[in-house]
Amino acid sequence: MPNFVINVAVMNLYKEPAFQSELVTQGFLRMGPWEHTAMSPPVISRQNYLDDVVNNVGQAFLGTPLRCAKCHDHKFDPIPTRDYYRLYAAFATTQPAERHAGFLEAEHRDGFGISRKRVEELLAIAQSKVDVLWMLCGNGGLLIKN
Questions:
Q1: Are residues 87 and 38 both part of a single domain?
Q2: Range of the structural domain that residue 120 is part of
Q3: Are 55 and 45 in contact (CB under 8 A)?
Q4: Do 22 and 84 belong to one domain?
Q5: What is the pLDDT of residues 2-20, one digit of tens each?
Q6: pTM of the shown model
Q7: How far, in whole angstroms, is CA 73 from its chain's centroid?
């Protein structure tokens, strides 16, 4: 556990992890939903991401969720709003990055081939039905009954 905490805390100091397990540990800050769509401005998506990071760190390392401290202090809660925003500021420079993380030797990978084959079969079935759905849909997406 101590190595995990150290790797999470100083992940921005690593250029390349020495071990695959360090790369996986660094991915901790990516936990939580990161979704940017046209439904929300990029700034809002970024704020939601940072809120998730701060909350995950609070739950994992402090044993308490921190979302409530985002808006107000409670008389008996251990984390005041100012501390929430101090953590928030510490992670504000964190940027998500896509990095390849292979499997560790100790990980159980039996059955991956069988599962992959099943997913490919299901995908082929779904793709074969796309043309039928396009033929059935018309008039602005309404189903046409013969």
A1: yes
A2: 110-146
A3: no
A4: yes
A5: 677 766 666 656 556 666 6
A6: 0.59
A7: 28
